[in-house]
């Protein structure tokens, strides 16, 4: 059995065939999916979706760093909280668009939004699904400034060995996606990721693995990602599946 720890099944790409997508996931052995929100509206949507697919789709409430420029209100996120919510996220830092730019004010807004959601997670004793792109230095600085470290995962991990060690030192998990089937960098990093900190995710509808690149991604492709990671690590797919499922259940304690 597999768990897709990060997919966006509430997105409009699935409006015409969502039930089939969930069914296909089940058939492929992907029994549970974690669906993070990316803003206030989508966080509301994932709560509704989780009600439609109880025990299959689990909601996380979060505001993506791309939203930081609109000054979203994290208090409103807090007001959506209920017993179904499995995590806070996705939240984090994304400096990809700020390359070669100082962009100090914009980065500060992202850092503040990230910090507020980390504190929300601590207050509710929930794990955090974190997004980090081209921002690892500030990312760990924000985390380390907290009164205590929340449990969490860096989803769609794109760092190198140094960032991996920094995550490991803080007992943070890392999620690997379908780009492991074509990314040179990931094929070099993944063998060094300890099995005990590894999670599987699709980030569907994005990052579709080979041989389906260019098509819409779905949770049913998790086994393709697992196969590639197992190969890179020189272990069986069964061991990889079992360990990553246990890891997901360890981090997201309300999965059952
Ligand atoms: Zn993300
Ligand atoms: Zn995402």
From TrEMBL:
Residues the entry annotates as binding a divalent metal cation 2: 131, 155
PANTHER family per record: D-AMINOACYL-TRNA DEACYLASE
Alphabetical list of InterPro entries matching this protein: DNase_TatD-rel_CS, Metal_Hydrolase, TatD-like, TatD/YcfH-like
The keyword Membrane is annotated on this UniProt entry: no
One Gene Ontology MF term: hydrolase activity, acting on ester bonds
Highest taxon listed in the record's lineage: Bacteria
CC terms in the record's Gene Ontology section: cytosol
Keywords on record: Hydrolase, Metal-binding
Protein name: Hydrolase TatD
NCBIfam families on file: YchF/TatD family DNA exonuclease
Protein's organism: Candidatus Gottesmanbacteria bacterium RIFCSPHIGHO2_01_FULL_46_14
UniProt keyword annotation of Hydrolase present: yes
């Amino acid at each position: 059995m597999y768990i897709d720890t990060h997919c966006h099944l509430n997105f409009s790409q699935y409006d015409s065939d969502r039930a089939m997508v969930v069914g296909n996931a089940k058939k492929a052995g992907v029994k549970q999916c974690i669906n993070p929100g990316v803003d206030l509206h989508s966080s509301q949507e994932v709560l509704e979706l989780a009600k439609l697919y109880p025990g299959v789709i689990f909601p996380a409430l979060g505001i993506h760093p791309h939203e930081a420029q609109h000054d979203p209100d994290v208090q409103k996120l807090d007001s959506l909280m209920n017993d179904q919510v499995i995590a806070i996220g996705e939240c984090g830092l994304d400096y990809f668009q700020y390359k070669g730019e100082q962009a100090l004010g914009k980065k500060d807004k992202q850092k503040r939004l990230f910090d507020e959601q980390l504190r929300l997670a601590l207050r509710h004793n929930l794990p955090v699904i974190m997004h980090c792109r081209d921002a690892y230095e500030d990312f760990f600085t924000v985390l380390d400034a907290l009164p205590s470290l929340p449990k969490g995962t860096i989803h769609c991990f794109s760092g190198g060995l140094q960032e991996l060690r920094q995550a490991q030192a803080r007992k943070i998990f890392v999620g690997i996606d379908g780009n492991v089937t074509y990314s040179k960098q990931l094929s070099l990093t993944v063998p060094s990721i300890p099995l005990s900190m590894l999670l599987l995710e699709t980030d569907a509808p994005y990052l579709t693995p080979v041989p389906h690149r260019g098509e819409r991604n779905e949770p049913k492709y998790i086994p393709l990602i697992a196969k590639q990671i197992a190969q890179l690590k020189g272990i069986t797919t069964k061991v990889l599946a079992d360990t990553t499922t246990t890891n997901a259940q360890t981090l997201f304690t309300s999965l059952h």
